[in-house]
Predict the 3D structure of the following.
Amino acid sequence: MAENKKQKHLDKITVRGARTHNLKNISVEMPRDKMIVFTGLSGSGKSSLAFDTIFAEGQRRYVESLSAYARQFLNQMQKPDVDEITGLSPSISIDQKSHSSNPRSTVATITEVYDYLRVLYARIGKPHCLVCGTEIKRLGNEEIINFIMDDVKGVAGKKATSIRIFAPLVRGRKGEYYQLLYDLLGKGYLMVRLDGKMHNLREKIELSKTKKHEIDVLVDEILLTDFKGKEKGRERLGEAVEKALDESQSLVRIVFADKKDDIKDFIMSNRFACPNDGFSYPEIEPRLFSFNSPYGACELCNGLGTKHFFGKENCPDCNGARLRKEALNVFVSGKNIVELVNMSIQDASDFFASLKISARDKDISVPVVKEIQNRLSFMLEVGLNYLTLSRRSGTLSGGEGQRIRLASQLGSRLVGALYVLDEPTIGLHQRDNDRLIKTLKELRDIGNTIIVVEHDEDTIFAADYMVDIGPGAGVHGGEIVVSGDLDELITNTKKYKSLTLDYLRGDVSVPIPKRRDTDKGHLRIRDGTIFNIKRMNADIPLGKL
């Protein structure tokens, strides 16, 4: 018997004696793990009960359960004016006022899509040289050796008689380099290739200091016959490649030659350095793609994209992209990270659905791409397909900001929480209501309680339980007009009376007037272009609803 009573207690959220703002010592019981709608006139006390009483107490109790050390970093909410609330879970508020106006905050950063994009670009992005545009590949020492061995067994190996392994030291720079050549002789090297021609370091070498030079020191020369059925040739090649990479700090030049001519000549790198002009990348890490990090942010605008804080004029160096040039020259399937976040959520979702990458890159990126697609999918579900990922959070409407945070919560798959939402349908076209309602129901079905403050008819009808607050606004409100299972409230016309129910049943309606006021002119808009508005022309009549 006691166990049943305890279980019944846990199935409900019970509020007794709530007096916050205009609430008149009200009491109400609501089911847990259901979708509950608070409705009534504006100013009747819906938000006072939902946010300032139920949410505030749920969050306050959760924070109090933490250690004293943790509490000092969190805002402690005051206890609301209420006698008792039971059956509460840790509470999450998703309202229209809490989205950030920070210029660094965007749709992509709020939803964590950008964090996953940074990881994706750091792991499978293809860097390109800022000077010549060539793709830069980084290979491990073993990969370099395997690449050379393929040529040994191929056409180059059949035509050549030897392989020369060079360490490229000077690439297209002016100077005499007397000291460098002297030091190489001191290290035991005998031969260098100067501007394509071989020279003995024991000979006198004079270089023009006004001309650009190429200097490669010969590390080793191996006859092709040493590779035939001999592991010793591969071992010697490995030692020479490792020594060349160490001497040049990332590059090795391989030359297949016969007794007279060079047959094949190429440079390889075990770092992100261009083999053509030596341009080198910093270490490609997720922070390179963060405009909030000094490592990745444009040096001129510090990652703001504008000349001044909260300014509107694009930075002349990054042209509003916020990132340093190296980050903008790393591509995934032909797009850099800025081009990708400038896409709409719908286009970004389509991009990842048809992502064209190698099998190796696919294996590496599967978990990251899955997280990105999940978050994009959640935003599509709440009707945000038109927003770009780069859209700044300060420019979002209250309803858009709320639905973005709702999509993030859906992605977290949190269970056993109490969500309190403030009119999430604001700004939505009627056709998108169903998508939003489906999202709220999914959040409920995985084991959460949803309280929605709402006037929208579709959302009210989708709820399991309704609390109508009124009967008027301000001092005339603050009372529970009616509460209960929505189906029972609608069908039992004699027992339950409220203006809201009258409208929901269709007993009362707002008629469309037969006569309209005369024409008072128009507000004309020509070539309106901002965010997702594309050169819009509109004539809006004045003096009308």
